[in-house]
Known about the structure:
The complex is a heterotetramer, with two copies of chain A and two copies of chain C.
Chain A: E1 2-5, H1 6-20, E2 24-28, H2 44-48, E3 53-55, H3 60-72, E4 76-80, H4 91-98, H5 101-104, E5 114-119, H6 134-138, E6 144-146, H7 151-163, E7 168-173, E8 180-183, E9 198-201, E10 206-210, H8 214-227, E11 232-236, E12 239-241, H9 245-255, E13 258-265, H10 270-282, E14 291-295, H11 306-309, H12 313-323
Parallel strand pairs in A: 2-3, 2-4, 4-5, 5-7, 6-7, 10-11, 10-13, 13-14
Antiparallel strand pairs in A: 1-8, 6-12, 9-11
Chain C: H1 41-66, H2 80-87, E1 95-97, H3 103-108, H4 113-121, H5 130-133, H6 144-159, E2 165-170, H7 177-188, E3 193-199, E4 202-203, E5 206-207, H8 216-222, E6 226-231, H9 235-250, E7 256-261, H10 280-287, H11 291-302, H12 306-329, H13 349-372
Parallel strand pairs in C: 1-2, 2-3, 3-7, 6-7
Antiparallel strand pairs in C: 4-5
The structure holds thiamine diphosphate (TPP) (2 copies) and magnesium ion (2 copies).
One thiamine diphosphate sits at the interface of chains C and B.
Amino acid sequence: MKSLTFSQALNTGLRASMERDSKVVLMGEDIGKLGGVFRITDGLQKDFGQHRVIDTPLAESGIVGTAIGLAFRGYRPVVEIQFDGFVYPAFDQIVSQLAKMHFRSRGNVKLPVTIRIPFGGGIGSPEHHSESPEAYFAHTAGLRVVAPANPQDAYTMLQQAIADDDPVIFLEPKRRYHTRGEVDTELIPEPGSLYRAKVARSGKDLTLVAYGPLVKTALDAATAAEDEGIDIEVIDLRSLSPVDFATLNASVRKTGRLVITHEASRFGGLGAELAASITESCFDYLDHAPVRVTGFDIPYPPAKLESHHLPDLDRILDGVDRAMRRGGTSRGEEG
Amino acid sequence: MKSLTFSQALNTGLRASMERDSKVVLMGEDIGKLGGVFRITDGLQKDFGQHRVIDTPLAESGIVGTAIGLAFRGYRPVVEIQFDGFVYPAFDQIVSQLAKMHFRSRGNVKLPVTIRIPFGGGIGSPEHHSESPEAYFAHTAGLRVVAPANPQDAYTMLQQAIADDDPVIFLEPKRRYHTRGEVDTELIPEPGSLYRAKVARSGKDLTLVAYGPLVKTALDAATAAEDEGIDIEVIDLRSLSPVDFATLNASVRKTGRLVITHEASRFGGLGAELAASITESCFDYLDHAPVRVTGFDIPYPPAKLESHHLPDLDRILDGVDRAMRRGGTSRGEEG
Amino acid sequence: MSPTFDSTADPGPDALLQIVGPDGTRHLCPELDPWVTDIDADALENLYIDMVSIRRLDAEGTALQRQGELGLWAPLLGQEAAQIGSGRALENDDFIFPSYREHGVAYCRGVAPSDLLRMWRGAAPSGWNPYEVNMANQQIVIGAQTLHAAGYAMGLRFDGSSAAAITYFGDGATSQGDVSEAMVFAASYQSPLVFFCQNNQWAISEPVARQTTGHIADRAAGFGLATWRVDGNDVIAVMAATRAALAHVRTGSGPAFIEALTYRMGAHTTADDPTRYRDALELEEWAAKDPLDRVAAHLDGLGSDMNALKVRADDAAEKLAAGLREAITSMPDPEVSDLFAHVYSHDHAGLDEQRDFHQRYLRSFESTAEATA
Amino acid sequence: MSPTFDSTADPGPDALLQIVGPDGTRHLCPELDPWVTDIDADALENLYIDMVSIRRLDAEGTALQRQGELGLWAPLLGQEAAQIGSGRALENDDFIFPSYREHGVAYCRGVAPSDLLRMWRGAAPSGWNPYEVNMANQQIVIGAQTLHAAGYAMGLRFDGSSAAAITYFGDGATSQGDVSEAMVFAASYQSPLVFFCQNNQWAISEPVARQTTGHIADRAAGFGLATWRVDGNDVIAVMAATRAALAHVRTGSGPAFIEALTYRMGAHTTADDPTRYRDALELEEWAAKDPLDRVAAHLDGLGSDMNALKVRADDAAEKLAAGLREAITSMPDPEVSDLFAHVYSHDHAGLDEQRDFHQRYLRSFESTAEATA
Lengths: 335, 335, 373, 373
Ligand SMILES: Cc1ncc(C[n+]2csc(CCOP(=O)(O)OP(=O)(O)O)c2C)c(N)n1
Ligand SMILES: Cc1ncc(C[n+]2csc(CCOP(=O)(O)OP(=O)(O)O)c2C)c(N)n1
Ligand SMILES: [Mg+2]
Ligand SMILES: [Mg+2]
């Protein structure tokens, strides 16, 4: 066990993957000497050389498109997108190429490309630096999408994502980069465990689902709710495509109540899919409609307003109150 | 009243908008002499000239980006994307620029750009010609998204979209282009009606929501269900952002049952949002969880398989049976 | 005072490399001649047979579409020299990233007829196994494949391989950001990649002047690429330029760009009607520059037995066409299960559940059918 | 045998247009001199004051960030001549599409200090009203603004306007597909647009050699643009080139491109640490080419009263800096309601409901507070 920050865990995971498989190459803007703007690739170019840690021209479509070509040639590229808001120029290559090549080639071409995206807000940045684009990718067939929430998962899941033969969008909750945690670098994860959710705290009254940056917030909310006598089960989703509905459904059948939280806009966000699917599977067990506590349907706001946009402990508890039919902010129509 | 095909209605609508406002310009690949690959702009370049109907270089990001610049200068560009699958190279310009400029400029810059996208499948085309990308846009704050389902709406809604000061993604169900219908070209639509859903058929047992290409299929399914004694209310959603939840909720409160159908992939599709939102508003009225009948979570399949992928009358009725608790295909976990 | 946009044609063949002119005359071309010293009459006869064959292949594609056997077809008529000249210049381990119109290049690679037609029939998203023929599947998104080629070529360089990559695309494609970015990446890493632009003068209804005011090859030069601007209807010149470009990139001197001036004699696809946007005169002009006729005229001049050659060529072409027809009649329709196959390379809980659900759904019809039987 | 990628610097200042050298000597420059015959000592003094002012503005930005008043700042240090030379060459009705570093250009436009800082403070997504200053808001997505400029310039042409558009971007931006597409569109419609590339040698930690193997200006020439490659630390040369380019585009001769060679003397932003990736020697070299020093030396040679000038310049700069500080201290924080304002220009049922919901949510705290009070 080592005590590592989230970013150190990623760096260590990258190093382990690169040592294990010489076909693993890293690509991105400023990932070489600089070590990336978040220093996730710190020291790796020095140790593995310029052809394993590849500084690229400033063009995201180019980065993803050439990563596809490298994968075609047998490489296993790990792409860093500098910030979430800069992934969109690569959207076509991700959605029409990366996601579809295996299907197009009838299984002949595998594209084991991992796209690392520091995502989400809370760091006081200007426009385009705090986006939560997960719904776009999760809706895209052919991609897998995961988001670790703690250093151990950062370390383990990143290596699993790199080892996966399918393209994986790997979302890193950037505001948790400095979080420290115990990491077992010897841990050999179970096969398939990359795509399983984890019960981060068990409880019996209500299921609270979060992923990435909000898992910590959700756990804090659960602790706060305890004082009010509400026993919350917190689920760290971990995988956004596929979603581990078996774990979610089991929890909701036990608790009968569901709150989902994410930073991304509510309308058409992942929360909608979770709510809709779980409702379909667990309708007769539900005591209340699933409640979503999310970012608003607005462009990510300026730094001085982001605390209002991001779900926090109070807003999650407000959602919990609604789900428990103990008050909470009334919905317009009824209220 | 005139009898027009869906595509003629669009053409007539474009012409009317161009006559009304000299700032309306059309942009796109092959929209001039050729009149577009679907002939929607047929004859317009001849009548309005090359600076009103602008053939563009082959670059979608360029088309949308320059449309933004033209709008900056006071124009009202109407962009044609040749096929749904070719909108992704423009994704960054749409999501980070078009959608956010009004917010970014604190209301100073309006971008009345309409992006016309022939969307959906059913025409036997190869890859990238049959996509349903609406969820990506509906999830994007700052955009409005609409989809007409019949010639009258094609004619009216297109003019309303062009007249709107916000950017509008205008989705045209390409497999309905040849559908003929009565169009009242004198009709003066109510303000705000662009964003209202329509009860296309009223009924009391179940609410069936569709949009674009599947409205016709939904109406056929309702007719078929009548024989089995099920009285279905069909709602043509028309606007995908904003969604007219007032109309939807009223219907579901009456019927207690909801089936949603779309061609797009199910996971994270618009159906998830409809199901989740309506469940939240109408939980106590629902006799069964909302049911979704959608395309699978796969890349759009080759022509010879598309009939299996696209929701048809039988698959919708299967969903209806499930919602009515009268059978239908069992969900895995229960069955 | 509305501005007009002249769609004047490409500035013309200045500095255009040519070896055999439209009338079959062989010209001296110091820049290219050294690359084709081995192309004697025999070799040229084979190139001729290739060109006749793919012209026949193309006609069969159009015919099969008319007969309803194919959903769509993108004719290569007029571009035979560009495709055979380049295709035959490649080594087996050179890897090709094509667009959708390179049936002739696929033919050079020995792609099976059924694999070639699979996509056009609507039976599969695409055809062959890229690794069996060292050629990626058809690419429909304009320009996207050029970046894959740039990445593959980076890999070749990392591997110290002597192979090269080549990517095909059209004049219209040069406007796409991806194509510019591919040049940036290829130049930045000095990768062994040949960009092969078939400038067939049109992107559906848009003349090349809509995409560029100058020569396409000049644009590539601005990105630091070695460039060749060649008569794309001259099979020897195309072969020479491709060999020269391949040799250039193999030495590690950075990527190369070939602009092959040719003409799309047919429709954009079988769904297109070019009479709506282009002049019959233009077609005639280009017909006079036909890539096959000039080789025939040249071989005739060299004393080849043209009757015998034409018989051989027609035989080869007919055999190819018969193979295509046979491939179509014997091609099984895809299975419903193909919908769910290969979306992922291994299990995906969400999709697996949908697949099972759909199987149960389909079985419910069987049982209904049984019940009512 | 792993290949290495040399990050050798830009090939150097061959064919670089210059009027005043680093030591203040005035050179003959037949290509540019005719464009700046009006720039006498008085005019040059004003340019000097401008440059001193924006250097001060920039220092104040960095200081305010260090003091926690700004969330971030992107220094322009070293790029004063590029921004003042071009900014002062523009007519009022020319429209500017900048990136995020053009504080100097915004200063030329008279953007209010509060509006300039608003975004950097995190108080608003951006600052000013573009129509009041004929300058679009800061653009963060690299290269995206160049397409807006291309579209705006199309509109200028349609309108028969004599105004031009100008867009600013960096050396790194030239790799983005959007920038290439902007050149395609501007050339295709022969639009009155000047592309102004501040090649400051670095894109964060990437040297310009990662983006291109040749001169950036040459790339633009390949797209058919008229190009100028100018010493970007020479304010008169930059002004001359910008005037020449503007004159060119105003005549309807198509778009123009200026590559201004300069250097980012500071960090990429206040969040960056350039010592991790670049050599102190390089910085020294460029310090010797300082844009302000050479004007001072030149004016001194012309007999200007340098002490008086420096006092005037410092006064102006100090006033500007005081204005910035005052703007910060008096800038109100945004209101929660600003979250929902301007997402759309009129009602949107979904968002309106969320706004109302959030208001009710916030009010619930008030009542709780009251209840416990
Ligand atoms: C990104 C994208 N946009 C639009 C299209 C539609 N489209 C198919 S082919 C074509 C023209 C291509 O022209 P060119 O690159 O010259 O190739 P050619 O067809 O002449 O071989 C267009 C616009 C597409 N396939 N992909
Ligand atoms: C599309 C996109 N990708 C990445 C970034 C992150 N980023 C911000 S500035 C920058 C470097 C820009 O370099 P250059 O264009 O030379 O401009 P300079 O900062 O030197 O003025 C990068 C990579 C971005 N803002 N947008
Ligand atoms: Mg073409
Ligand atoms: Mg720079």
